[in-house]
User: What shape does this take?
Amino acid sequence: MAFFLDLTVNGLLIGCMYALVALGFVLIYKATSVINFAQGDLVMFGGYIAAAGLSLYHLPLWVAAPIALLLMLVLGFAVERGILRPLIGQPVVSVVMVTIGLALVFQGLAAMVWGAATINVPLPIPFQPFILWEIFISPINLVAAGLCVGFLVGFVYFFRRSRMGIAMRAVADDQQSAMSVGINVRIVFALSWAIAGLASGIGGIVWGNMLGVDTHLSLVGLKVFPAVILGGLDSVPGAILGGLIVGAVESVAAGYIDPYVGGGTKDFAPFIIMILALMIRPYGFFGREIIERV
Amino acid sequence: MKAKGWLAVVVIAALVAALSVVAADAKHAIKVGGQCDRTGATKLVGVEICPAVTDYIRLVNKKGGVMGHTLEYTEIEHEYRVDRGVEAYERLKRDGAVAVLDYGTPIVYALTPRHMEDKIPAITPGFGRADSTDGEVWPYIFPMAASYWSQAAGALQYIKEKGAKKGTKIAYLYFDNPAGREGIPMMERVAKKEGYEIRLFAVPPPGLEMGPQVIDITRRMRADWVVGHLFGRSPSVSIKEFRKAGFPLDRVISLVWGAGEADVEAAGWDVSQGYLGLQFAAVGRNLPAIQEIIKMYRDEGKEVPKYVGGVYYNRGVLIGAILAEGIRLGLQFGEPLTGEKVKRGYEQIKNFTLGGFLPPLTVTPQDHEGGGWVRVYQVKGKEWVPVTDWIRGYRDEVFKLVNEANKKK
Assistant: This one.
């Protein structure tokens, strides 16, 4: 039982971090209907900026982290403004190809600027675990999950209570209607990308601390897809739930099935769940069910 | 003849002389080559090992080459991909290379039949196929440093010396590719012999996450020791995961490709204190060959790269030195040099230490591994510190396994 709880709790803590990455994805999709295949690469880029500040330029954390978050906010904004906006009205496939191209550009650029080596993101948090009812919990996992939950709560509050948040929800519901009541849709688009950039920056810092930063870090973004499909492509609570489910499922599956199949369960278990979800409930737990008359 | 005419004759004669010198130099150049990986899955290693090989060859040439012959080394990037590795070898062969470095276990497996057919020897220091230790079965493959079987045996020897006994639990955490799987038979063999309880834990590439495996090792299995055979991104991730699980890192011993500065740097030196790793070449700058390279850089007015003297850099120097030594000994069999002569040259290597750089490397037709020596290092402070002398473990078991494997072929 302790083993099961260990796997589940640690999986859920990791799942909080998946949820954060998934949130960026959902936000962009919800506001702009763009599926951002560069989400993992944004996380990687955020990690690189933080790692460079801390490990290469030896800035204190209180300087390096805000700089990384600010730059990621600006980057998200710039991507929308400079690359996505001119594509409004173009076929979906063009936009998809652009985000795939962006992913590769981010990877190449990061390797060119910061080199091939994996860079650490040192945070002043101990690695030594503490034991809670037989469950080993690492402070770094807990802090990372706390940071992610904090951001998610803050974002949900902003989304539900602030004027701009309400404007974002209106745009997400119906762009035409939102425009007709005077909402500046362009600003909402840019803000969505900027917030997604910010979420990626936080994701980059925490994932970078857990795994180190190099171009492989973008693979974390792959977990976004099962998470958002499970939760619903356009649902913020769905992204959170999807992230938690993916984290727990992969951890428990790896713990119990790996010994029999030799390993690797962790990587495909979330995708099996994703396929099942698509077959049973294609719009996810909280996704909007779009009904069209034909 | 008028002055102008004489001048023309002198100019033409000078040109002819110059061209003949160039031609003579070209005639003396010996072509060697190697694959490398500065951008692929194991780029952490490649970015240090690749420049080290070229640095050493450059040093040899600056000192007059090998018995007056310049070494013309061609490096081909292959991203640790089998198709590109094969393509690289074919290119080197086409261009007349008489000795090559094969880089990466899956690539060594793919290229072995070609080496046998082409009679061009490949060195595979610290990776490749362990059964090629027997040079009578695999005459053109030279591991030249501890194979994965010898590495596993060395790690288990260390564990035994640290008090392991019947019932000791050992987890083998390995990268799930041909290289990672290579050590399994040796681990299982020694575990059976000593009565250890062993469990295997695969880490699928690229080894970015291994939380559940580590929880399983530390909580369900409750392992006493972990032997890690990870590389690329995964060693640093494993270090962090074991720390997060509260497992003592002085009970985690890595085979050679998870024991570099880059691996520890990526995890953080403070986080990695106590982590153990095997080496088959010395570490540090205080070695004659490394000092010569440093001097070469300074003489050229260049800044000495930070990685010079590091774990993976020094292994690249070992590769360059073995190539040069094989060529030197191969030339004793007469010119022009061929792959067959280089192969015979390699088999003449005796007590080759490169000034304390290596354990006494002695290669024979029966032992292309050169002894199978390793040394255990530990992360202390901000460096890898040796905690044993050069050791060999279960040598008889290694050879039994080699023979059994080769009989099956």
Summary: Chain B touches chain A through 38 residues (CB under 8 Å). Residues 83 and 98 of chain B are 21 Å apart (CA to CA). Residues 3-28 of chain B form the longest helix (26 residues).
